[in-house]
Amino acid sequence: MKILVTGASGNVGRYVIEELLSMGEQVVGAGQDIQKIKDIFKDTIDAVHFDFTNKGTFHQALENVDRVFLMRPPHLGKPEDLYPFIDAMKSHKIKLISFLSLMGVETNPIPPHHKIEKYIEAAGIPYAHIRPGFFMQNVSGVHSVEIREKNQVFVPAGNSKTSFIDAADIGLSTAILLHEPNKYRNTAHTITGPEALNYDQVAEILSKVTGRQITYAKPGYLKYRRHYIKDRGLEKGYVNVTVALYFMTRMGTAKEVTDDFVKLTGRHPRSFEEFARANVNSFI
Ligand SMILES: NC(=O)c1ccc[n+]([C@@H]2O[C@H](COP(=O)([O-])OP(=O)(O)OC[C@H]3O[C@@H](n4cnc5c(N)ncnc54)[C@H](OP(=O)(O)O)[C@@H]3O)[C@@H](O)[C@H]2O)c1
């Protein structure tokens, strides 16, 4: 039987697939843009057209599948957006859903992940929730523009700390859960990087790695929101969600450091400095 990976072309999905393939698993990569998936994985996996908002795509995606990596595309802000697909999985013999959740949602009902976890559990399908901290890829991705163009880290996180994790480490952890569904049945794993950094420390590491003076601009929420919507042209709904996440970060929800990654993988998670060196091209 195969493992369905939703968000196959996304930050985490692509690493989940790489790791599953190296474990000898058969994978179906799902997304709206099949060509994107084929371009990344060539013929090493099957690719299926899949849309959370179109029930007509569910049956084919679940054919010959007994485990699922489930992620919520960031622009689908309501937990209810994922419910029809979770309902559809009930009539297939699914041994494990590994849902890409978020650190701290077990006690924080605001992010959509909280309700999605509860909905999966209530559906009676075996689960292994993966609850990562903030991705290092946020810095090398959406926030790299200001780093390259203005030598500034431009996020409204105040003086808070974040235990950044590399999406590749999330991919490895998730693949381990899906590879041994009985062992990890009905479990949850909070995985983080090895240390919690504030954004002055992030800027310091980026300065060291790039050889340029990069500073933390420490904008307020309104300045950040205006810049990302007006100057960067990003979708309002997406920017609002990030404002809420940085608000929570300031409340201290992103700073916990756990050893779940070491327990799962037997390895140490990548540090932000190692990540920045390996991805220096994103910052120059
Ligand atoms: N960034 C963080 O720090 C962080 C931390 C913890 C948790 N998370 C959670 O991680 C998730 C995002 O994961 P990611 O960064 O790997 O995603 P991503 O890189 O933003 O990729 C989104 C994926 O979703 C697919 N997609 C978009 N719309 C879809 C639809 N309607 N139906 C089916 N697939 C669709 C896209 O492919 P197509 O365009 O081909 O469909 C793409 O593969 C979010 O739920 C976020 O809350 C993020």
UniProtKB/TrEMBL annotation:
Q: Which residues form the NmrA-like domain?
A: 2-218
EC no. given is 1.6.5.2
**InterPro entries recorded:** Ergot_Alk_Oxidoreductase (IPR051604), NAD(P)-bd_dom_sf (IPR036291), NmrA-like (IPR008030)
Protein's name according to its UniProt entry: SDR family oxidoreductase
Q: Gene3D superfamilies per the record?
A: NAD(P)-binding Rossmann-like Domain, UDP-galactose 4-epimerase, domain 1
UniProt-recorded Gene Ontology molecular function terms: NAD(P)H dehydrogenase (quinone) activity
Q: Does the keyword rRNA-binding apply?
A: no
| CDD domains in alphabetical order | TMR_SDR_a (cd05269)
Return the PANTHER family for the record.
PRESTALK A DIFFERENTIATION PROTEIN A, PTHR43162
Q: Which controlled-vocabulary keywords does the entry list?
A: Oxidoreductase
| One Pfam family it belongs to | NmrA
